[in-house]
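Self-study notes.
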Amino acid sequence: MKPSYARLQSRLGLQDLETILALHRGRTLAGAAERLKVDTSTVFRAIKRIEQDVGELLFDRGRQGYTATELGRVLASHGERIETQLEEAREAAFNQATEPSGLLRITLTDTLLHTVLLPVLAPFTTLHPRIALELTTTNVLVNLSQGEADIATRVTDDPPEPLLGIRLGTVRSAVYAGKDYLARQPAGKPLAEMDWVALDDNLPDHPSQSWRRARYPQLAPRHKVSNLLAVAGAVVNGLGVGVAPLAVMREHPHVVMLDGPLPELDIGLWVLAHPDTRYLGRMKAMFDFLRSAVVLPP
């Protein structure tokens, strides 16, 4: 049963909202404590006190950590708006448009992190020594409006509203095989009879899956992996053939393109942000940098 604490008036303050927002983002006491630079017991006591003050549970406790209730999410959003206004004030006070600073949180897939972003980030960190980066990989588009990240880099042809951003280019894909694997196959062996490496059942509707089923309806992949980077790695190391982005292979000396590029799999690469934070100096710096630094294979 949900506890109820009778209060005539809440004493909820700015620091309380900051604590709620930190736990909402961190999902665990340790994650919130790291953001607030305090110990976990401090966060635990603060949340208990705040819940007693407002008279409602703000977080459900479970094996996956702390999940905000409806009221918890509302209060976290108020905290985020205050945080955004403070950032705006700091921008004005310190003219950070000329020297942006602060933490910049970017969410993207493992494949994009290792093949698109990491190869170009070193010059950015040199250009902007006061910006710290937090890079989080996930296949899910996180909720930027709830402050789970500042920037999302995703492959899509239909960026979700209300996010704003720029299209960095087109991600193209092809069918590849490792040279060692091909050397073990008889000459003229059809593609449909080779050992295929494909994404597992967690991504059944990925465009590469749909393409393969349409092109080779009788084909059953021999090997399955969890992401495109793993598909590419399996191909490079001789496990079979598979569909991988050109940006991942980039003229890899140990692979051969067997079919493609495949126009059916062309998809846009976007860098996205919430309109409330898009103007911040560090955000603008990253957008401007990626616009010129990211060059995808034609």
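Second protein, same conventions, sequence then structure:
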Amino acid sequence: MKAWQVTDWCKAADMELRDVPVPEPGPGQALVKVHTAALNFFDNLMIAGKYQVKPPFPFTPGCEIAGEVVAAGPDSAYKPGDLVASQPDWGAFAEYCLVENAPTNPVPEGVALEDAAAIPVVYPTAHVALQRRGQLQPGEFVLVSAAAGGVGLAAIQLAKAWGGRPIALAGSAEKRQVCLDNGAEIALDYSDDAWIEAVRQHTGGKGFDLMFDPVGGDTFDRALKVIAFEGRAVIIGFAGGAIQKIASNRLLLKNASAVGAIWGRYLTENPAYAHEVVADCFRLLAEGKIRPVVWRTYGLDEVPAALQALDTRKTYGKVMVRIGA
């Protein structure tokens, strides 16, 4: 099979597309013929050796796929012919990929594999952050940073589906329009400090009830200036490159809280719940309440270019790779 290989920590442009043996599934594994893979922010970090997961060399990067099971090992939950979506630890940017039971879910009838491939990472991340960790209630204001990214748009769509009132932070006019098109009530430029007062005015002076923040750093710090009484700030990650030192006095004065939300931990700590979350995301997709936004779809031979485009942060929504028929 064709597979992109990383033989030493490098940039995406330095990977090699190689002919490698098709892997065989072991216990609890299935072999998937990949139809579509999706890119994520952490792919470039993994390739460069800057992510917490460091696979042994050589490895194939990529952590989000949809496709058809062609072989199954003992105790696999799937059989040949099943259509699945999965979040493998790595291995997605190839014609075939091994998947484990826990991060893999059946694709419901009627759901296109192109859409299914965009579900396993960003939508469950937003689902867990808003519902389980953030305790979102209908009518609450939800501030979403990096709102035009894949996980940000997922958060806007889910918040809207659950009766929330999304407020988007994004860096360009094009990205802000994408946020508005996907359910944000207002979309503000995070590089202009005027957004803080705009949030205050839009919420009638109370501030936001819930923050969905994959950025960290200064954006998070400034947001606490306008968190509501008993507001919740949910920390998703630190895409801005800086880990904030939380101003706990602001939490105290507002009876507010800051909590973390890492979707991947549920795959090992509570896989039954993880399957429920993904199934709920597919249900919302089937009902038309969420819909992946795709910036562009590349071919397998274009994976380095796709990763470089993602790294420039000029993209929005999901960047996809079409691999098989």
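Instructor comment on the second fold: The two ends are 14 Å apart (CA to CA).
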